[in-house]
Amino acid sequence: MLSQRTARLTSSLIRDILAAAQRPGMISFAGGLPASETLALPRLEDVPDGVMQYGPSEGEPALREAVAERARAMGMRCDASQVLILTGSQQGIDLVSKLLIDPGTPVLLEAPTYLAALQSFQFFGADCRSVALGEHGPDLDALRAGLAAKPAFAYLIPTFQNPSGRCYDAAHRDATAEALDAQQVLLVEDDPYRELVYDEACERTPLCARLTRAPWIYLGSFSKTLAPGLRVGYLIASPELFPYLLKLKQAADLHSNRLSQWLVLSQLQGDFAGHLARLRTLYRERRDQMHAALSEQLGEAASWQCPPGGLFFWLQLNTPGIDTRTLLPEAMARGLAFMPGEPFFPNAPAAVSAMRLNFSHSDPASLRQGVRLLAELLHEQQEG
Amino acid sequence: MLSQRTARLTSSLIRDILAAAQRPGMISFAGGLPASETLALPRLEDVPDGVMQYGPSEGEPALREAVAERARAMGMRCDASQVLILTGSQQGIDLVSKLLIDPGTPVLLEAPTYLAALQSFQFFGADCRSVALGEHGPDLDALRAGLAAKPAFAYLIPTFQNPSGRCYDAAHRDATAEALDAQQVLLVEDDPYRELVYDEACERTPLCARLTRAPWIYLGSFSKTLAPGLRVGYLIASPELFPYLLKLKQAADLHSNRLSQWLVLSQLQGDFAGHLARLRTLYRERRDQMHAALSEQLGEAASWQCPPGGLFFWLQLNTPGIDTRTLLPEAMARGLAFMPGEPFFPNAPAAVSAMRLNFSHSDPASLRQGVRLLAELLHEQQEG
């Protein structure tokens, strides 16, 4: 009775973890939530009258223009007519899946990659292939070979990647764009973390800005900088792809919430730069606190790169062969939630001995206490 | 490069009509917009702090409970755990399509039916079959035969149907529910217009409340009663279907806008009954004005049922063989937009000589002037 794709709806492990992480007293490194104290309630003065009525599927014209202006400042060629406002950038992943994936369609991803994108692509039946992500970007030989096999698209998160926190350097950005252009493979670039930069020297110009021949879809979000609860994101697409995406958006939910589009616009037009600066200061402190706690408690048990931006540490246990999913029940019993590494891999190896730790949502005391709980658990594990 | 389903994205005729209908000076009977003066801007006092943060995919618990309570008052067996808050009820159609439709899946619909549902089902590859809708409900013999062929589901709009304005009477509701139960075919009941009732004697108890064996999904909306711009709708599902729909919702946009859920809840907890009473009074007047204008100007050229609720007149021209799409360019040149009948049919006959006219969004002078323009056009057509 149900569709074939429904059988590909993946397990509820992640939902279960995130739900359990809400329990009182639980320290959660599991989700990717902004710090709640950074989420100011908006004032609703001067809201234009029309926002309660049906609106355009494309989004509010003034917000599309503001997004285009910001995209141009990032180095992209972008007209407002290429901007589609979304109900969160997660919706962009759904639209991309509908636009591009039939059962068996090959798709190229980083390993590890954003698990909710992976789930959506697999749900629509994609043949998900992966390229290992190194410290400064993807394995370029593997990337070129993967693109030569002509996937329908490559889904990449070059800047402060989820879950790894890594940021492609300029050489890897250039080489990746060149390889995409050479094969004319469509790039879907997911870029929700770019404003959360803590080490300013990072190269952050989008890959889309470097392309000259390959078509592209760029996904952006206001959830990490303004308010996830408003569900406002956007995509920017090559002109030839835009009309399809617009029809798909209309079929999905007619248009995005107009009140929230207006609230986002009014914040972009206010002191958004100052807000971002404060956000970076707060999150940089928390990153440094988690890095210090990890160095103190887990310096011998695990390895990690201190992330130059974004929301996550990606912790690789030094003892191989431990599937971190097996650690989770005991961790949660002691009051700590984290995200095991396995669901982030398109084709997971036998035992993924990595985990993702969020540092934006916990206060300093919880960061220290959570790392202490994790260290105790890992040390017992090694002894036991 | 694009998915096979993208080739089934239908034409942009409807988008073009609705876009053109926005032009200054145009009288639009084309869309289904609430009267703008009924859409009050909310006050944002007492908004709970948490609404800017990520929230549950199911929706806000208090809103789910309020929806369940209203559903029970309509006669449905409904617990809050069966309620999923949606980004507009259009999203429910997208989720239903994903859950139930593979290429070639048979689906049973009324003819005519809601065109954006039809488009979504066809986009996912459904084999759309239809049952003619009579004055008091579907042709019951055709319905029973259609259900005996075991479609994956039946999509029905029993109350103030879009586009026909018709309302199943009690006998047709009972017989339809009985036929669904007999074949255990899943019912998707779309019910966005139920509160816009002008002739109070209408039987409006949902079909879902009458089912005893068939699974069901009920789609509800706040767009017609509170504010379409907020994009808040909901579905209620048989318990066995709920977990799938929840996962699909999460994959589509994580969760619905929390601020808007709170605004809807606060209006439900306020004088919602008084608001509905005022809305019905206003729309009843406009319905009566359009009915009077049509009777005066088009009594010989067309036939229609004065709709007991909802937002639309469905006008059948008395001269057969006129495809109303051919009238549209000249009508729009003279300043009138309407929706031609053809896109509302799963398998349209050669020339659909019907059209849908909205009466909620135009003021009395525009209602009269629009009908006058239409009458002139039709009289010229008959003479020409």
Automatic annotation (TrEMBL), chains A, B:
GO BP terms: alpha-amino acid metabolic process
Names of the cofactor(s): pyridoxal 5'-phosphate
GO MF term (any one): pyridoxal phosphate binding
Family annotation (Pfam families): Aminotran_1_2
Coiled-coil regions, chain positions: none
The Aminotransferase class I/classII large domain, residue ranges: 50-344
Superkingdom of the source species: Bacteria
Entry keyword set: Aminotransferase, DNA-binding, Pyridoxal phosphate, Transferase
Family of this protein: Belongs to the class-I pyridoxal-phosphate-dependent aminotransferase family.
Assembly mode: Homodimer.
Protein's name in the database: Putative 8-amino-7-oxononanoate synthase
The organism of origin for this protein: Rivihabitans pingtungensis
